[in-house]
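seq as requested:
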Amino acid sequence: MRLGIDLDGVVADFNRGWTSLYNREFGATLSPSLVTGWDQIPDLTHFEHMGDFWHWASDIGGSSLFRQLDPYPGAVDALRSLSRRHAIVIVTTKPRFAVHDTFAWIAEHRIPTREVHITDRKWKVDCDVYLDDGPHVLEGLIRHRPQATVCRYVRPWNVPVPGAVDVTDWAAFAEIVG
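struct tokens:
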């Protein structure tokens, strides 16, 4: 089967990454647990809007934020295991400035894929099973890919989406995939 896997919030720990870098640069004490909503960053930081955040995130010490993220514990191993029986298709949304850093990140962490799509219309990528954490993305996948199994990686910043299967860890996802 083709498994459509999101990166940020699913494989890469976006919130731990940006809060750590923000704390270091601005002397703050934010923790990832404070992120309980989508696009909540302006509420937690000095950035007035997400555009200010993305401007900062585009160049932190010579690369974008996306190059500097750590994977969630167990995520890469789970993908390697799943890749023995299934095609891992990375389907992620990124700002234009992060495209090269995203490919470098995938290579550095040896993500087992031969196919990467960077798009905000993830439903255009045909997969049998999808795993994502974005509520708006999940809704689009359910609407446009009714034949697919759509899994919501349960995170504090997302809510249940009708039609999505809730997944709380990689073992549960592997069980769904089979």
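Residues 14-26 form the longest helix (13 residues).
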